[in-house]
Structures are given as C-alpha cells and as structure tokens.
Design goal:
alpha/beta, 8-stranded parallel barrel, two-stranded antiparallel sheet, 10 helices, globular
Length: about 300
C-alpha cells in the first residue's frame, strides 16, 4: 500500500435530518435508525462519525425531523465505544462561545475522550433567519468565528480564561473539566483562503475542505502551507481533510475507488463520506466500506 494512503482516516456523516433523509419518518423511528447506522459504521471500522449543525432541511424548507447535533452526538457517544465523533461543522454564532467550550468538554468526558470540535462561520441563511439569529454578511460571520475561536481555545487551555472581543468575551472564567484527560482537536471548516485558512493556521489541528475535487484540493495545499508559514507554524502540523459531497461524489465501485485513491494520494489526514442514506438504504455503509477496503483505506470488516 502507498505510504501516503496508509495514514488516511475515513469518516462518515451521520444522519441528522438536513438532507431530507428522515422525510416520512416519525422522530422515534428516525432516531432508532440513526443509532443503528452509527453502530454499523463503527463495526465496519470507520474512524469517525460526523453530525451536521442544521435546524431545517436544505431549501426549500419543509416539515421533517432534524436532531440538534450536540444532543445527537452525546447520545451516539453512549451507543458506541471506539469511533471518534465530531461536528461538520458547528455554526459558531448558534451558541455562545463559552457554552460551546463547556458543551464540547462535557461531551469529550461522556465519550471517553473521542471528540473533535468542528466549527465554522455558518452559511444556511434560511435557518439563521427562521431561528432568530439574523444573517450577518460573510465578513461579520467570519469575525464571529474568530472571536469564538479565541474564547474556545482559551477555555480549553490550562487555567482560567479571559478574552475581550466584539462578538464574544469571558472574564476569569473557570472551566473544568477541560476534557476527558487529553487534547480536544479543533477542526475549522471552510474553503476561504484569505480568512478561514488563516484562522485554521492560528487555531486548528485540522482544516476541513468542503466538496472540493481532488485537483482543487491539490491546488489548495500550497496556499494552506503559506498560511502556516505566515505565522511561523510548521505546515505539517495542520492536518487537511475533505468532506465529499455534491460534485466530488462518485458512484459505488470503480469510480468511487478511483476518487478515494486520488484524495488519499494527496496525503490528506481524513476523507469524510456521506452516510445520510443509511436510514433508508441498508447496504450503503457496507458498500462504502467495501470500496474503502479495496483501495487499502479500511480493513475488511463486517458488523457483529
């Protein structure tokens, strides 16, 4: 197996509701199928499971179940034992920064140290307005993200936290426990080279690129390295991952295997594939696992 490919982790997005995967299901049935999908994904050997942070289905909005992702991942943490769990990604403004830090630390303890904090600026205008957040322009949403990262990183660091920002502040805040005992990785999500990638270089363990084709990721990597160089950070310490949906998705079999190889050969830390349809397609996760195993990204496994 190629050395670059061997270290790639494969994640799966959990059903959460925003892709209309729960249409026609009552809440209880939707939840039972989500737990079953999480357990099956863990049994197949996937490295991580990820929940979106949305409150309404993709436009046009309509009535359908959607689960709040902190509550969802807390419950999934009690239903699994090994797989890592994270958000892909939290919209920073949806929760106060200090509360996000408190919630993620608690979730890390509940899960036994399996949590990754994925966070970004947010984009889904319809739910921002529907849920009373307003919808600031992109520069303002990025400024909110920056202040939240300042607060969260201070809250997760040793000692008390103080930070005075325009969008978030804490004053001598006591925050315990910080985690289950280890470091909670921060994943910043977004494709913006001027602001988002600079924030990732400053604050994150990993930058998650959204729906970019392999050749686009390849073009992005030198720019991401430059963002690290600007602040004297070793680019090798900032992992890069990709969330595969939309254009980059490929049909099962040879096409998906070729796509997986292309991402892996770029030396990415993680590739995250969509698992929403597992609530209605009982063979989906096995098909993904088979393709990942065929290109050396997953050990062949079967659910217990």
């Amino acid at each position: 197996m190629d050395g670059a490919r061997r270290g790639v982790r494969i994640g799966i997005t959990l059903p959460q509701g925003c892709d209309r995967e729960y249409l026609g299901l009552d809440g209880r049935t939707a939840w039972e199928r989500t737990v079953a999908a999480a357990r099956e994904a863990e049994a197949f050997g996937f490295e991580s499971l990820w929940a979106y942070d949305h409150f309404q289905v993709d436009p046009p909005p309509e009535e359908a179940p959607i689960f709040e992702p902190f509550v969802e991942l807390t419950a999934i943490a009690t239903a699994t034992t090994r797989v890592r769990l994270g958000h892909l990604v939290l919209a920073a403004a949806y929760r106060p920064a200090a509360l996000t830090a408190k919630m993620i630390s608690t979730l890390d303890v509940v899960s036994g140290g399996r949590i990754e904090l994925g966070i970004g600026a947010g984009w889904k205008r319809d739910e921002w307005l529907a849920y009373g957040y307003g919808f600031p322009d992109a520069p303002e949403r990025l400024a909110i993200l920056a202040d939240h990262l300042e607060v969260i990183t201070r809250m997760l660091a040793p000692g008390r936290a103080t930070y005075h920002g325009r969008h978030a502040h804490v004053i001598d805040a006591i925050h315990e426990p910080k985690s289950a005992g280890g470091h909670i990785p921060i994943v910043v999500g977004g494709n913006g080279p001027k602001v988002t990638w600079r924030l990732a270089a400053r604050f994150a363990d990993e930058l998650n690129l959204d729906a970019l084709m392999p050749e686009e990721v390849e073009s992005a990597l030198p720019v991401i390295s430059e963002r690290c160089d600007e602040i004297g950070r070793d680019p090798a310490t900032l992992g890069v991952s990709v969330h595969v949906w939309g254009r980059p998705e490929a049909p099962a079999g040879r096409e998906r295997r070729d796509r997986l190889r292309a991402y892996a050969d770029l030396g990415l830390r993680r590739t995250i594939l969509q698992g929403f349809a597992a609530v209605t397609d009982p063979g989906l996760l096995e098909s993904i696992a088979d393709d990942c195993a065929a290109v050396g990204l997953l050990e062949a496994a079967a659910p217990a």
